[in-house]
């Protein structure tokens, strides 16, 4: 019996704490040509701590020129509260992941071309934030890692699944999924409101979160993160809640 789907792309709603979210393209408005697959290669280096360390590291870069954006981490949205989709509860919280065998599951049900391409770009061992979405208090609760790279999502062929796609063929599947495994809980819950405050400050004065996709493409359930974005957000777990 398949586990509840983690899908939040088609017909998704903005997080309840984000009423001003811009409406992104849905899968009906997005073509394969518009969203070509892009692979990523994770750079070397560990996490830094806080804005000061991020800025210090940035200033020490030789040449001072911005390098081409490379996405090597991810943010995965999942709904921790019950919601029925075609009669199936799509709830899947971090506790549900931890309860799975080996704390591992497949990340199925994605039905947006750009989000699908991000799934296909994920590399073995890359880490992602597990983000509770479409709930009373959205935010980051844990870290997971990719333990199996993209392969066909079986739910697209299951007529009983809410994400069944009659236009997809087994010889040429339209949709993919990856396997993820629980790594650890973040040291504290990092709410969307706190991340947004930093995003607005960085957008005004410069900083790693100025272009964070959580605020530029809010409705995507799979979002890439640069090393700098990941490091800065991770450093927030060491700070007292604002």
From TrEMBL:
Its main location: nucleus. Residues 73-235 form the EVE domain. GO terms for cellular component: nucleus. SUPFAM superfamilies: PUA domain-like. Specifically binds 5-hydroxymethylcytosine (5hmC), suggesting that it acts as a specific reader of 5hmC. It is found in: Nucleus. Gene3D superfamilies: ph1033 like domains (3.10.590.10). It holds the Pfam family EVE. This is Thymocyte nuclear protein 1. Keywords: Nucleus, Phosphoprotein. The keyword Acyltransferase does not apply. InterPro entries: 5hmC_binding (IPR052181), EVE_domain (IPR002740), PUA-like_sf (IPR015947), THYN1-like_EVE (IPR047197). The keyword Lipid metabolism does not apply. It comes from the Eukaryota. Residues 10-28, 56-65 have a biased composition (Basic and acidic residues). Residues 1-65 are annotated as: Disordered.
């Amino acid at each position: 019996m398949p586990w509840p789907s983690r899908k939040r792309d088609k017909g998704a709603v903005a997080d309840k704490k984000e009423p001003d979210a811009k409406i992104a393209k849905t899968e009906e408005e997005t073509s394969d040509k518009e969203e070509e697959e892009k692979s990523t290669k994770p750079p070397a280096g560990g996490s830094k701590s806080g804005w000061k360390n991020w800025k210090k590291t940035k200033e020490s870069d030789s040449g001072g020129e911005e390098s081409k954006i490379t996405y090597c981490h991810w943010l995965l949205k999942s709904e921790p509260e019950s919601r029925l989709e075609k009669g199936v509860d799509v709830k899947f919280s971090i506790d549900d992941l931890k309860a799975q065998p080996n704390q591992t599951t497949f990340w199925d049900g994605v039905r947006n071309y750009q989000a699908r391409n991000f799934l296909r770009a994920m590399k073995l061992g890359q880490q992602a934030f597990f983000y509770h979405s479409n709930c009373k208090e959205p935010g980051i609760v844990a870290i997971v890692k990719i333990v199996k790279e993209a392969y066909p999502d079986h739910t697209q062929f299951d007529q009983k699944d809410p994400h069944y796609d009659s236009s997809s063929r087994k010889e040429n599947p339209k949709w993919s999924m990856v396997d993820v495994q629980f790594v650890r809980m973040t040291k504290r819950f990092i709410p969307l409101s706190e991340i947004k405050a930093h995003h607005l400050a960085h957008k005004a004065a410069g900083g790693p979160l100025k272009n964070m996709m959580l605020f530029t493409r809010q409705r995507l359930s799979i979002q890439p993160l640069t090393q700098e974005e990941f490091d800065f957000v991770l450093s927030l777990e060491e700070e007292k809640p604002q």
